[in-house]
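Appendix B, record 7
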Amino acid sequence: MVATTSMLAIAQQAPVPTRVRGAVESVDAETMTVKARSGEIFKLRMAGDLRVSGVVKADLADIKPGSFIGATTVPGPDGAPKAVEIHIFPEEMRGTGEGSRSWDLKPNSSMTNATVSESSVSTDGHTLLVKYKGGEKRIDIAPETPIVTFVPGDKSELKAGAKVMATIKQLPDGSFETSRVSVGRDGITPPM
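Structure tokens (predicted):
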């Protein structure tokens, strides 16, 4: 009975997050405290090889055939993928996370990192055909869809009030560490 109860408790534990989205509460030499959008507080140890990228506004006109982008999508009423956000990777980040997989931004969302093959405009908005190893996807983009790109950043941007998305991992002692943080600039909240 004890074994069954222990197994049920383990099965009911919340999944360990792999990303934290929110605002920086405080930073010291090794730790960043982030208040997640859910209200949870995360103390994140900053890895020695921490990479910081700035997130700035971009436009649909910046996306051209050959661009390498990331698109968070959800199924629309017709089942077709509708973009929730688009981020344009700089050339030096081409190939980052290439492919399509489930994503934790919204229920039923997916992330597709791929190269733009075609771009077309219709009365309903804009559609991109993106291709990645093993597949392709048509993505519908509404005029209000946030579009951003990454620029070089540094640790000094991680200060109280900064809007961030941090990739995290849980360490053996139960604490969390981040080695990659995207920080919004000029009032941008990283939309991914």
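Remarks on this record: The longest helix spans residues 2-12. The chain has one helix and twelve strands.
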